[in-house]
Amino acid sequence: MGGSFAKAFAAAGVEVFAWNRTRSTLELAMIETVTGELDETTIPTCELIVLAGYPASTIEWLERYAALVSPGAIVIDTVGVKRVICERCEALCEPYPFTFVGCHPMAGTQYSGFARARANMFKGAPMVVVPPEMDDLERATVLERLKGLLEPCQFGSFTLATAEEHDRNIAFTSQLAHVVSNAYVKSPTARDHRGFSAGSYKDLTRVARLNAPMWTELFLDNADFLGEELDTVIESLSAYRDALAARDAERLEALLAEGDRIKREIEGR
């Protein structure tokens, strides 16, 4: 994620400084993408800082470097949960003359690392924005400036939300999908699927491949909403299982038709 931001800005001719926990990755980025290292000397020169790390590391970076961020700068994150991030980061930034804005780019793949980063990763993608508490005029000014700073990324839309709205929706649209996909491939039959699988298998298993430490943090930080979504899908799956066990064709067809109807309604057709 961070590498894609760096490549998008670099491709637009923006001066980019970066930091990575793995030195070799940073050195590679400095050869082909970034101008230099993001450190105590360069942090005060930045107009926009993008924190593309795990939840805990995002908070830790601000705890360490908030005092160095230049007045008027905007700091954003890319973390997939917002309540824990926004609450902590906004509190950390409150004494300083810059603004923290919670963000979540709705883009990415099942792969990670700088080698997989793309300058066009965010082209046309939605960006969810969780602005801090401030008066309407100040918020509008910050958001307009943020959109301008992010222009090289070519996001397709900006959706404003509260941290709670974000976390409740993302539990369904992202986190639940990762849990279900990850659980799906645990079937013993998965090892024998070659020659028997097509689009359905590929679609459902794409995000089974994931970064386990990162997703563990995200799931636990959103355990309440994700737990509710899991309860719902478990209940639905049980209904299908009961209909199969009873050989109840009428009930099974009704369940399938209901899912088809809901999908068509959601998609508007």
TrEMBL record:
Pfam families: PDH_C, PDH_N. Residues 1-269 form the Prephenate/arogenate dehydrogenase domain. This is Prephenate dehydrogenase/arogenate dehydrogenase family protein. The keyword Oxidoreductase applies. Belongs to the prephenate/arogenate dehydrogenase family. The lineage of its organism: Bacteria, Bacillati, Actinomycetota, Coriobacteriia, Coriobacteriales. SUPFAM superfamilies: 6-phosphogluconate dehydrogenase C-terminal domain-like (SSF48179), NAD(P)-binding Rossmann-fold domains (SSF51735). Keywords: Oxidoreductase. It comes from Thermophilibacter gallinarum. It comes from the Bacteria. The keyword tRNA-binding does not apply. Transmembrane segments: none annotated. InterPro entries: 6-PGluconate_DH-like_C_sf, NAD(P)-bd_dom_sf, PDH_C, PDH_N, Preph/Arog_dehydrog, Prephen_DH.
